[in-house]
Design a protein that fits this description.
The chain has one helix at residues 21-40; strands at 5-12, 48-55, 61-62, 65-66. With 68 residues, the chain is α+β, with helices and mostly antiparallel strands. The strands form 2 sheets. The chain has a two-stranded parallel ribbon. Strands 3-4 form a two-stranded antiparallel ribbon. β1 (5-12), α1 (21-40) and β2 form a beta-alpha-beta unit. The protein is elongated and about 40 Å long.
Length: 68
């Protein structure tokens, strides 16, 4: 697939285990695409890719400290 814009977002892996995971990820994908196209123009919408990447707690750091 040819993309004009791409964004990769790290998200806690636990989100994908929630019963509403499909709804949450769909809303994130839509909202992020909307935000990108508001800035760069709606003509890029079809080529905008959003990737949600699972980050397990044991590999997530905030301010240099492990967040487990």
């Amino acid at each position: 697939m040819d993309t004009n814009a791409s964004v990769i977002v790290g998200i806690r892996a636990g989100v994908f285990d929630r019963p509403d995971a499909a709804e949450i990820t769909a809303r994130l994908g839509t909202a992020l695409t909307d935000a990108i196209t508001r800035v760069v123009g709606d003509d890029l919408r079809a080529g905008t890719m959003v990737e949600l990447v699972a980050s397990p707690p044991e590999r997530t750091f905030v301010g240099g400290a492990l967040t487990v």
